[in-house]
Structures are given as C-alpha cells and as structure tokens.
Amino acid sequence: MKARIPKNFGGMPNNMQSMIQQAQKMQEDITKKQAEIDEMEFTASVGGGAVEVVMSGKKELKAITIKPEVVDPEDVEMLQDLVISAVNEALRNVEAKTAEEMDKVTGGLNIPGLV
Q: Does some domain include residue 6?
C-alpha cells in the first residue's frame, strides 16, 4: 500500500504564503504612510486665536504664536494653560490623522503598537 503525502508537504500552504505577502505589503504601506504623516504640519489654535502652535507629524513642536494682548504679567497661569491646551490639541490632531490614515491602510485591523 502506498502512503499518500499531502500537497506542499514540508512547505507552507498557498494561502499561508499569500497571507505573508499581504502582511509584507501592508507593512510597506504603513511605513510609506507614516513617512507622509511625518512630513505634514498640524496647526492648533486656542483662546480665540490667542495661542497657536504648529506641530510636525513626528510630534515635534515647530512654532508657537502668542498674541501680545494675552501676555499679562499678572496672569501667567492663564497663558501657560493656553499653551498647554494648544500643544495638546495639536497632538490630538496628529494622533487622529495618524489613526485615520493607518485605518485606511490596515482596513480597520487593530494592530497593537501601530499608533
């Protein structure tokens, strides 16, 4: 009696190879999209335009603009709060755009550590 050896014995099934190729393509797309996001600039303004910050997609602060009329030596805490709010808003904008773009690449697949 002859023993029957399954197709692709000792190798990967075709569907596994296809999955690996898809994962590699997705990784390339993710890397490309992240590079695009890194080059973008995100602007956030708070206090009716009193404080504006510009942040890169790499989450690096590029610029802060403060209107002179909000600089009150008697109320430094308010200015500090406005700067913090603007920076946090810019960070949220970067995170939201990154999540949106990665969602397009991954098709909504939640990949831990991606964002």
A: no
DSSP state of 61: E
Strands 51-56 and 61-66: antiparallel
pLDDT tens-digit series, residues 67-109: 999 999 999 999 999 999 999 999 999 999 999 998 888 877 6
Check which CATH number belongs to the domain holding 67 and give it.
3.30.1310.10
Considering the entire predicted model, what is its pTM?
Answer: 0.74
Q: Which of 51, 59, 47, 50 is nearest to 90 (CA)?
A: 59
Maximum Cα–Cα distance for the chain, whole Å? 97
Neighbours of 74 (CB within 10 A): 6
